[in-house]
């Protein structure tokens, strides 16, 4: 799939991957072997009938392809872009054993984009109301499935714009915001009501939602609590969580400051600690915002990086430096309290740890200083604590996640279900969608049995 | 919803709005805050809730026009709507245990100290109020505070009303007056004032609650921009505060963090003060 040229794209926020045209998509679709027992489907968290939708593309019935996709996935334009297909459907593709696997994600994206202005029919909704808390991937998938099943759905969002991490977290150049808006608008056209600026747990509690006549509640409040390393100097001016850096840039459009009024200080030399997709997003955003030098600082080696290969490749192409087997020890500051260095220590890999990856160990005496004026912490997020704290009846794990019945997604409160990052800890968009969808099925069953 | 139903100009740069939002009014408690945004390209800013009326479904905010957003906010009129108005955020203040309190409000910090004093007064506690500011013009709520305080003191830098000097001068007098033991102090105002208050209360070991106006984006724990050091722990002002044990707050760090975007803001407002005017 063609990409925007690296030299050019670091000067703009336009999408990096340019997508297939009709001819390229049809050609790619014809590479699919149409396996009788397709393994790819097993790799899809929402179980899309992959060979079927690809068959429609191959025969140039793009309408049919979309219908097939939408049977299982309400947000194909988003999933086609941000799903880690190489670890899911495409990993299992038979064609991929000897050649490049079929570009399933790219085809999904093509079909969704081809129909981006198609009109969605309003679902015929019954009397029963369900509340969905959070409008990220889990909430949107749950809402969509509930609408299809004829429920009135109200989605509550704490921010002023719906979309959750799709809006505040993932940058424009990887997932254009108008695509997220289109997918959300389709839910509204189907009949969803979205209430922004409502913080469930503060403005209204979960229990009050039940009292207000919602038959069930789905909690998909996400992993909105950034972790820090707890090393000296983390509160110096110039240290950001990736969440803050990306929210200022994406949702608040700080890259258009002062026309958009939220400021963001980028600095000349930026270190991003961590090597997941969020770290790559933060590094590439910093580059686009004018940082001269941006480095990833990661304590393990390239092989263990949790980010998608494609993201790492794109980051490298854009001139992001990789300081691997390097761990921050402290952040140093000048007299004014601004960051002027990141003290690091070199690491080596030892025996495998619980995660199966080789455990990094510091090499004695190998400390050195990385001269930076901005440090972005992208080492993960915990579950947002507002709902757990304000809902005493919920059973919460030691790590702060909401505990649910693994089959149904029901929490310790009858009629209250939960899914996505608030249950599992930070994971992928499609896993959250899978959980949202599963909970919608359970909610349907729950309401019908009552 | 979010319509301004009453506007009062309390001083040339301090304004009071009563805003219609029954959901927030129903839940608000002393010490909590709202986040607002006034136009599509606007910044989200936190403001402490100055009062609320559950029956009328209204929330009161009082703000000083210092930055770009508050200056624009000050131009709105009765009938105008606040685009985004979210809350109540943060946890309500839990005042120190006891019977006798001193509530100190400095500058625009008088706004959030009022609900604190009112809440203590309602519980039948003895409340002594101290209001402070540069001069007579920037003071407000003398009458309201008078109603919920057993005695009210005023200090101005220029002596245009009340004691000429700082709120801390009066605080020291109240503490050293042996006839009444003070069980707790609640102080809200500029960071240097809260720091000066805590320097004194620390000396006399009087539990002190302060309220921090840290920089933040979402106000729900998500950005971590509002980090504050309390003793040896890092807390988020939005979900762990904004009220904290003043004797443990690292005020110097907070003052520094408030200057984070000084240069960027100067480009827009032309102001040289760094957010302290």
TrEMBL record, chain A:
<dbReference type="GO" id="GO:0004355">
    <property type="term" value="F:glutamate synthase (NADPH) activity"/>
</dbReference>
<dbReference type="InterPro" id="IPR006004">
    <property type="entry name" value="SudA-like"/>
</dbReference>
<dbReference type="Pfam" id="PF14691">
    <property type="entry name" value="Fer4_20"/>
</dbReference>
<dbReference type="InterPro" id="IPR009051">
    <property type="entry name" value="Helical_ferredxn"/>
</dbReference>
<dbReference type="Pfam" id="PF07992">
    <property type="entry name" value="Pyr_redox_2"/>
</dbReference>
<keyword id="KW-0560">Oxidoreductase</keyword>
<dbReference type="InterPro" id="IPR023753">
    <property type="entry name" value="FAD/NAD-binding_dom"/>
</dbReference>
<dbReference type="GO" id="GO:0051536">
    <property type="term" value="F:iron-sulfur cluster binding"/>
</dbReference>
<protein>
    <submittedName>
        <fullName>NADPH-dependent glutamate synthase</fullName>
        <ecNumber>1.4.1.13</ecNumber>
    </submittedName>
</protein>
<dbReference type="InterPro" id="IPR036188">
    <property type="entry name" value="FAD/NAD-bd_sf"/>
</dbReference>
<dbReference type="InterPro" id="IPR028261">
    <property type="entry name" value="DPD_II"/>
</dbReference>
<feature type="domain" description="FAD/NAD(P)-binding">
    <location>
        <begin position="128"/>
        <end position="436"/>
    </location>
</feature>
<feature type="domain" description="Dihydroprymidine dehydrogenase">
    <location>
        <begin position="9"/>
        <end position="117"/>
    </location>
</feature>
TrEMBL record, chain B:
<keyword id="KW-0285">Flavoprotein</keyword>
<feature type="binding site">
    <location>
        <position position="226"/>
    </location>
    <ligand>
        <name>[2Fe-2S] cluster</name>
    </ligand>
</feature>
<dbReference type="GO" id="GO:0016491">
    <property type="term" value="F:oxidoreductase activity"/>
</dbReference>
<dbReference type="InterPro" id="IPR019480">
    <property type="entry name" value="Dihydroorotate_DH_Fe-S-bd"/>
</dbReference>
<protein>
    <submittedName>
        <fullName>Sulfide/dihydroorotate dehydrogenase-like FAD/NAD-binding protein</fullName>
    </submittedName>
</protein>
<dbReference type="InterPro" id="IPR001433">
    <property type="entry name" value="OxRdtase_FAD/NAD-bd"/>
</dbReference>
<keyword id="KW-0479">Metal-binding</keyword>
<keyword id="KW-0274">FAD</keyword>
<keyword id="KW-0408">Iron</keyword>
<dbReference type="InterPro" id="IPR039261">
    <property type="entry name" value="FNR_nucleotide-bd"/>
</dbReference>
<dbReference type="Pfam" id="PF10418">
    <property type="entry name" value="DHODB_Fe-S_bind"/>
</dbReference>
<dbReference type="GO" id="GO:0050660">
    <property type="term" value="F:flavin adenine dinucleotide binding"/>
</dbReference>
<feature type="domain" description="FAD-binding FR-type">
    <location>
        <begin position="1"/>
        <end position="95"/>
    </location>
</feature>
<dbReference type="GO" id="GO:0006221">
    <property type="term" value="P:pyrimidine nucleotide biosynthetic process"/>
</dbReference>
<keyword id="KW-0411">Iron-sulfur</keyword>
<feature type="binding site">
    <location>
        <position position="223"/>
    </location>
    <ligand>
        <name>[2Fe-2S] cluster</name>
    </ligand>
</feature>
<dbReference type="GO" id="GO:0046872">
    <property type="term" value="F:metal ion binding"/>
</dbReference>
<dbReference type="InterPro" id="IPR017938">
    <property type="entry name" value="Riboflavin_synthase-like_b-brl"/>
</dbReference>
<dbReference type="Pfam" id="PF00175">
    <property type="entry name" value="NAD_binding_1"/>
</dbReference>
<dbReference type="GO" id="GO:0051537">
    <property type="term" value="F:2 iron, 2 sulfur cluster binding"/>
</dbReference>
<dbReference type="InterPro" id="IPR017927">
    <property type="entry name" value="FAD-bd_FR_type"/>
</dbReference>
<dbReference type="InterPro" id="IPR012165">
    <property type="entry name" value="Cyt_c3_hydrogenase_gsu"/>
</dbReference>
């Amino acid at each position: 799939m063609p990409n925007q040229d690296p030299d050019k794209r670091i000067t703009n926020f336009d999408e990096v991957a340019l997508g297939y045209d009709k001819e390229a998509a049809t050609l790619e679709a014809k590479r699919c072997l149409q396996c009788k027992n397709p393994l790819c489907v097993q790799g899809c968290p929402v179980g899309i009938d992959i060979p079927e939708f690809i068959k429609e593309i191959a025969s140039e019935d793009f309408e049919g392809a979309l219908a097939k996709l939408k049977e299982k996935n309400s947000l194909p334009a988003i999933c086609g872009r941000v799903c880690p297909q190489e670890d899911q459907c495409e990993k299992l593709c038979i064609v991929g054993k000897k050649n490049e696997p079929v570009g399933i994600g790219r085809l999904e994206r093509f079909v969704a984009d081809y129909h981006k202005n198609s009109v969605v029919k309003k679902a015929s909704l019954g009397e029963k109301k369900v509340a969905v808390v959070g409008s990220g991937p889990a909430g949107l998938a749950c809402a969509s499935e509930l609408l299809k099943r004829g429920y009135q759905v109200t989605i509550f969002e704490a921010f002023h714009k719906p979309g959750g991490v799709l809006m505040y977290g993932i940058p424009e150049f990887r997932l254009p915001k108008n695509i997220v808006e289109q997918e959300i608008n389709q839910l509204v056209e189907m009949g969803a009501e979205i209430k922004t600026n409502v913080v469930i747990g503060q403005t209204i509690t979960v229990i009050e939602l039940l009292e207000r006549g919602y038959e069930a509640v789905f909690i998909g409040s996400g992993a909105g609590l950034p972790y820090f390393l707890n090393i000296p100097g983390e509160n110096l001016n110039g240290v950001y969580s990736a969440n803050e850096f990306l929210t200022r840039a994406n949702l608040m459009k700080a890259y258009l400051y002062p026309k958009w009024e939220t400021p963001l200080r980028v600095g000349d030399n930026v270190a991003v600690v961590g090597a997941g997709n969020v770290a790559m997003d933060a590094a590439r955003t910093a580059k686009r915002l004018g940082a001269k030098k941006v480095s990833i600082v990661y304590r393990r080696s390239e092989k263990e990086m949790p980010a998608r290969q494609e993201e790492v490749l794109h980051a490298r192409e854009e001139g992001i430096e990789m300081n691997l087997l390097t761990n921050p020890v402290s952040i140093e500051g000048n007299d004014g309290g601004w960051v002027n260095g990141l003290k690091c220590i070199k690491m080596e890999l030892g025996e495998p740890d619980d995660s199966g990856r080789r455990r990094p160990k510091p090499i004695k005496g190998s400390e050195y200083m990385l001269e930076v004026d901005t440090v972005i912490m992208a080492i993960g997020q915990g579950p947002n604590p507002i709902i757990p704290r304000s809902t005493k009846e919920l059973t919460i794990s030691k790590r702060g996640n909401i505990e649910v019945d693994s089959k149904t997604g029901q929490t310790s409160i009858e009629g209250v279900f939960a899914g996505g990052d608030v249950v599992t800890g930070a994971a992928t968009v499609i896993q959250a969608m899978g959980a949202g969808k599963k909970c919608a099925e359970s909610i349907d069953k729950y309401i019908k049995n009552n | 919803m979010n319509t301004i139903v009453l506007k009062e100009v309390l001083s040339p740069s301090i304004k009071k709005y009563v805003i219609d939002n029954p959901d927030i009014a129903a839940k608000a408690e002393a010490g909590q805050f709202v986040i607002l945004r006034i136009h599509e390209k606007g910044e989200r800013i936190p403001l402490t809730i100055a009062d609320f009326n559950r029956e009328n479904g209204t929330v009161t905010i009082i703000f000083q026009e210092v930055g770009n957003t508050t200056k624009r906010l000050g131009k709105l009129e009765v009938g105008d709507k606040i685009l985004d108005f979210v809350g109540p955020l943060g946890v309500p203040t839990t005042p120190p245990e006891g019977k006798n309190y001193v509530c100190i409000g400095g500058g625009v910090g008088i706004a959030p100290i009022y609900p604190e004093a009112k809440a203590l007064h309602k519980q039948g506690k003895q409340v002594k109020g101290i209001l402070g500011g540069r001069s007579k013009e920037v003071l407000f709520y003398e009458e309201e505070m008078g109603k919920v305080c057993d005695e009210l003191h005023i200090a101005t830098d220029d002596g245009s009303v009340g004691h000429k000097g700082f709120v801390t001068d009066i605080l020291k007098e109240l503490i050293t007056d042996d006839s009444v033991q003070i069980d707790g102090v609640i102080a809200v105002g500029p960071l240097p004032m809260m720091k000066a208050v805590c320097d004194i209360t620390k000396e006399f070991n009087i539990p002190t609650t302060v309220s921090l106006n840290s920089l933040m984006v979402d106000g729900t724990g998500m950005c971590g921009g509002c980090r504050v050091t309390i003793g040896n722990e890092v807390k988020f002002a939005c979900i762990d505060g904004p009220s904290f044990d003043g004797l443990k707050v690292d005020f110097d760090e907070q003052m520094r963090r408030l200057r984070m975007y000084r240069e960027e803001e100067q480009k827009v407002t032309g102001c040289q003060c760094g957010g302290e005017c």
